[in-house]
Structures are given as structure tokens and as C-alpha cells.
């Protein structure tokens, strides 16, 4: 869709494991998701893109099954400490300081 156009018709793109070598054309045709980035084929001109995104984590079966769980341990530790300080220890000063550490 060109700049200033009122046409809001969107077309579905085909997902690929790689970006095929294509000559830039008038429309986006392919997309690939790699390293938390969306890649598309080249296109001539300005285009408007609508992305509907959902994500599912794989099942956690052991300590090494999902690296994203490891990245959340710091957050969960601080949040747990904050909640324990606030509701078990009744110490809002420490709870507030832990809340601000994240």
C-alpha cells in the first residue's frame, strides 16, 4: 500500500525458514522469524504491515529444557522476596526497596 493510500486490505504472507533470494517487488510475500526478529523479502516503496503475534513456551521438563525460564529466575526471586517481606514479614520498607530493584 503506497503512502497516502486509503486501501487497508492486507494479504497473508508465507512463512519461510529463510528469506528466499527474490528481486524486490511491489508487495511483501515472505517472512521469517529468527533471533527474535522478523525478516521479510525486499519491497519497493513504503508498505504497512500488520502483525498478529502469539507465543507459546515449550514444556519445562528439566532444569535445562527452556533457557527463557533461566532468564526469569532473577525477576521471580526479587518478586518472591518482595511479597514475603510485604505479606509475611509485614515490612513495607524492605518490600518497596525490593520492588524498585527489578
Based on secondary structure, the structural category is: alpha+beta
Q: Percent of residues in helical segments?
A: 25-40%
Give the averaged pLDDT, no decimals: 78
Distance separating the two termini: 42 Å
The total beta strand count reads: 3
Order of strands in the sheet with most strands: 1-2-3
Detailed description of the structure:
With 102 residues, this protein is of the alpha+beta class. The protein folds into two domains: 1-55, no CATH class; 67-101. The chain has helices at 67-88, 92-101; strands at residues 14-15, 30-34, 37-40. The longest helix has 22 residues, at 67-88. The mean pLDDT is 78.
Summarize the structure.
The chain is of the alpha+beta class. It has two domains: 1-55, no CATH class; 67-101.
Keywords, please?
102 residues, three-stranded mixed beta sheet, 2 helices, elongated
Walk me through the topology.
Layout: E1 14-15, E2 30-34, E3 37-40, H1 67-88, H2 92-101
Parallel strand pairs: 1-2
Antiparallel strand pairs: 2-3
Amino acid at each position: 500500500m503506497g503512502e497516502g493510500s486509503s486501501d487497508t486490505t492486507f494479504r497473508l504472507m508465507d512463512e519461510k525458514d529463510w528469506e528466499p533470494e527474490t528481486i524486490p517487488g511491489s508487495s511483501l510475500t515472505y517472512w521469517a522469524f529468527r533471533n527474535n526478529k522478523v525478516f521479510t523479502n525486499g519491497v519497493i516503496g513504503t508498505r504497512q504491515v500488520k502483525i498478529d503475534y502469539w507465543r507459546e513456551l515449550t514444556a519445562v521438563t528439566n532444569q535445562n529444557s527452556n533457557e527463557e525460564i533461566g532468564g526469569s529466575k532473577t525477576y521471580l526471586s526479587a518478586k518472591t522476596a518482595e511479597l514475603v517481606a510485604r505479606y509475611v514479614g509485614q515490612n513495607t520498607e524492605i518490600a518497596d526497596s525490593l520492588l524498585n530493584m527489578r
